[in-house]
Amino acid sequence: MSKAGGCLCGDVRFRIEGETGRVTACHCTQCQRWSGTYWSSVSVPQDALVIEHGAESLAWYPSSERAERGFCVICGASLFWRQIDEAAPHVAVAIGALDQPTGLSVDLHIFTADKGDAYQIGGDAPRAAGDG
Ligand SMILES: [Zn+2]
Ligand SMILES: [Zn+2]
């Protein structure tokens, strides 16, 4: 079943064609700064992510030498993460941007060693200190 989603203001709309991969909740310091707490996303093949509307409102911020983060320039919603490498096969899509119900659940918490002190990790999903 295909999934769809969008940003807070609704200008950026996308769909995911085909199967989705692993759902991770990332507790790294960059994801905390970017999202407000931690950032949960689902991995999908690059060519499975189709921007249906608002492509001109989607900007990419190079958060490190190897990765960039896609966001809506109107509302600021944190939507996507991908490796800058052209050959990178996958893009991470924010599960909070997906229309409900997503049918997804977190498979793995990553970078828990960097977790902020103001929240707790709940649930039974496995945890990895690094990138898992
Ligand atoms: Zn928006
Ligand atoms: Zn992260």
From TrEMBL:
InterPro entries: CENP-V/GFA, Mss4-like_sf
Tagged with keyword Lyase: yes
Coiled-coil region: none
SUPFAM superfamilies documented for this protein: Mss4-like
Single GO MF annotation: metal ion binding
One Pfam family it belongs to: GFA
Span of domain CENP-V/GFA: 3-120
Keywords: Lyase, Metal-binding, Zinc
Family: Belongs to the Gfa family.
Stated name of the protein: CENP-V/GFA domain-containing protein
Upper taxonomic lineage: Bacteria, Pseudomonadati, Pseudomonadota, Alphaproteobacteria, Parvularculales
